[in-house]
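Quarterly update from the structural biology core.
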Amino acid sequence: MGMVADLVLQASIILVTIFMFLFMHNIPQNLYSKFRYRNRTSFQAKRHFVRGAQLLAQARSTEDPSAAYSLAKSAADEADLSISLDPKDAAAHILKALALDLQGFKTSALDSLDVALSPLAAKSLSDHEKGDALFKRAELKMLVSCGGGVDSALADLVESVRLKDDNAMSFCLLGECYEKKEMKEEARKAYENAIRVEPKFKKAQLALDRFGS
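Predicted structure, tokenized:
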């Protein structure tokens, strides 16, 4: 018992010494200040993101092209402010990509999605969010390259449907990519999966009709 008591006493002395050292060097206060700063910065970044998302929703809902462009530009500006405060948050990069796409800047939108899906930023996304982002990137790759970026888009779509298997548009675009590569059985299966997810998906049904299904 005496040995145990000595060990407990020695441990207590060591802990007291450590805490005294930390307080003497103002470490707890510094850690708290950094934590408080990170929280404040994160809050401001989220505020700009939410504002940008609201502006993007308004841009998509208006029937006035001029107003839609202006709102989308404001949404992209809010996304930039959010990114400046929290560059590792993929959501802000995706918001910027969607806003740029709505303005017609598809190459710039693709660049933003590349950042969002980079290893550093993509960690902030759930599997479903990453699946959606991969689908959007594949769609833009096909548009920017005038259908020439099939292999790159195909890789994104295969991963997209693996992460999120309830997006009919992902399966349909995957089918189109397989068709371009003359992989008919794979294309048929992709279109069938699109119909499985969304039975009234006309584009996928027309594609299957071409195959005689």
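The radius of gyration is 25 Å.
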